[in-house]
UniProtKB/TrEMBL annotation:
GO molecular function, one term: pantetheine hydrolase activity
Record protein name field: Pantetheinase-like
GO biological process, one term: pantothenate metabolic process
Source organism of this protein record: Crocodylus porosus
CN hydrolase domain: residues covered: 31-307
Amino acid sequence: MVCLYPYVSIIASLLFVLKFCASDSYVAAVYEHVVILPEHTDIPVSPEEALALMNRNMDVLETAIKAAAQQGAHIIVTPEDAVYGWHFKRETIYPFLEDIPDPQVNWIPCTAPERFGPAPVQERLSCMARNNSIYVVANIGDKKACNSSVPQCPRDGHYQYNTDVVFDSEGKLVARYHKYNLFMMEKQFDYPKEPEVVTFDTPFGKFGIFTCFDILFNDPAVILVSKLKVDTVLFPTAWMNVLPHLTAIEFHSAWAMGMQVNLLAANTHNTSMEMTGSGIYAPDGPKAFHYNMETDDGHLLVAELDSRPHLSATPPATVNWSSYATSIKQFSCDEPDFPGVIFSDPFTFTELTTPEGNCTVCQKDLCCHLSYRMAEKREDEVYVLGAFDGLHVIEGKYYLQICTLLKCKNSDLKTCGQPVATAQTRFEAFLLSGTFGTRYVFPEVLLSGIQLAPGKFQVLSDGRLVNRHGISEPVITVTLFGRWYEKDPPQPQQASLYGYS
């Protein structure tokens, strides 16, 4: 009898080496998860009950992780809140938290689970990574004891952090990130004292990580890309879609293009809270994306990406976002300006009443120029050109400059800026530009049915957003979404227990 086991072992080792040797590309996966939520309660559950719920969610995640590995994925990102859900107060989330050590301790929870005390969640996630030879990115909760007599320490004697963890293909903890920009409903968590900028290297590029609301701010999102030059950003999120400019797939794809970086965005799926939209995004557009408000199903995306996009053979030209707009005279529009509102921001609009034309609308220092040609001007659909230059103050305070071509909800101009999901008007041509004061501008094109438009538009080096390949699909909005980080007000007191989010 011939024994094959040594040869099988050698072949398996060779396959593992080939999978993770340095290469020009890698296979990424993200999973949009329908989270099994805890019951509403003002009384903390037992640790056993907490773990039982988390294991139910991790059962689903493990199936997705195995499927991704079988499709050749090197890394998979799972969503924010995917393990334990939401509906928590500070006291009620505590049984769901574990002490997550600094990755410098060189720890594989799968093989040494009790090294830092009970850590069943970290153990299981580590084993998922190790058993499937895949990097696993997950969002869980961290707890850190402190001296309650110290002013910065919460009164209950510990910090609680919304935390991302990364386990490598051996199951080792290689990254830990505490979310810095907490959303308004995250009263159960504390702010870290300082923004954390977390990176780690792999054979397939340099990675950075942050969570959900962080993407709208300079720290840590812009710092990771502009200063630390990561190739890929890992992005667990629980994103509630806000039309017309802040749907998940729309803004996350635009952010990846504007920052010229790969972005792996894994969203939770909860249609009652407008949560859906995950994607694998590259600097030149989405490689895969998913948006589904019709059914309550999880969804796995797998796609190949360049490992080091900034070293590509044809690097993108640097964009001067105001170059074209400041070089031309303002166009006169057929209709007078009128005020409108998008997500509580006061826009200045002007209606596009003809099938084609040129138009300029201004607000403060921002002037938005549009040249366009519709395939047909429909009487039942109204489009406007809008501008906003100011501080957004609803779920956070951050400075925006936005130029947008968008469809109104109906023929009543008072509805311009309200959510719209479908359209019938096609554009043969559009050219949008603005006199932006910021260099951080994110180009968005959203089509009817909440769909992206990969390959159907481009940004020129002088800041013009233009369509490609003739007639578009029906358009909901064409937008240049600018973030002027230098004009943001100071961040809230990070040491506050009750921190503003």
